[in-house]
């Protein structure tokens, strides 16, 4: 296992899984504006499907910056925008307690990932120090349909890891305890090959780890591969459904993040 990540819990069962929902941005701000129009024209969010996904490692780059925002490309302290191909990511969160599939409203969904050069914000490293910067981090609260939407970029890569996005969902279990689910999204390697022919990704060179060689992916990441739609010129959209069994709060959010839910 790469020391980027540490284990936080069990891989969830798929016994309550129903069916996978099939839904589906290098020009900078122009492409983002175009992508936003596409999302607006896509219509309302779909009815959730309770897909139980594997829980994977949280990693060592999580920072609870309290950034409630949909557009995570901007660094509010530096006033800069992360360069890269736009990606609009929709996450639909459902409650499958008592074998019922219903939207989960008010759950906090955080996502964070590296930029096109493989660098995370707000962390000290030997090769870089980005403490105080807040690009490519943020959270949203699920709406009445269990939906959150993020505007970000296609992630870059760093040595030892396949391309991925970290996320965690925090809510309350049926017994009132804090409930937390953490995992990682992955990308189809063939699609990533196409993306990485474009600048700024191409500047970094060829990545050294594909999905099949990534230890986190081997723990169930094949169930977390995003189905992306779009192109390198217009940007990408993707969606994923996450079903949570709120009767099974084996690991509380307060245990992992040092305090109760905000």
What can you see in these coordinates?
It is a single chain. This protein has 262 residues and is an alpha+beta fold. It has a single domain (29-250), classed as Protocatechuate 3,4-Dioxygenase, subunit A, CATH 2.60.130.10. The chain is 13% helix and 26% strand. It has helices spanning 29-41, 189-195, 201-204, 215-218, 253-257; strands spanning 74-75, 80-81, 86-95, 102-103, 108-112, 137-141, 147-153, 164-172, 178-187, 225-226, 229-231, 235-244. A hairpin with a 4-residue loop joins strand 1 and strand 2. It is globular. Residues 1-44 and 251-262 have low confidence and may be disordered.
Instruction: Specify the structural class.
Output: alpha+beta
Helix content: 10-25%
* Corresponding CATH architecture: Sandwich
Proportion of strand residues? 25-35%
Number of strands: 12
Mean pLDDT: 80
Note the overall shape.
globular
Order of helices and strands: HEEEEEEEEEHHHEEEH
> What's the main sheet like?
5 strands, mixed
Number of helices: 5
CATH homologous superfamily descriptor? Aromatic compound dioxygenase
Radius of gyration computed on alpha carbons: 17 Å
Instruction: Give the termini distance in whole angstroms.
Output: 31 Å
Poorly predicted ranges: 1-44, 251-262
Kindly report the CATH topology: Protocatechuate 3,4-Dioxygenase, subunit A
Give the number of domains.
1
Q: What's the CATH class label?
A: Mainly Beta
At a glance:
By secondary structure, the protein is α+β, with helices and mostly antiparallel strands.
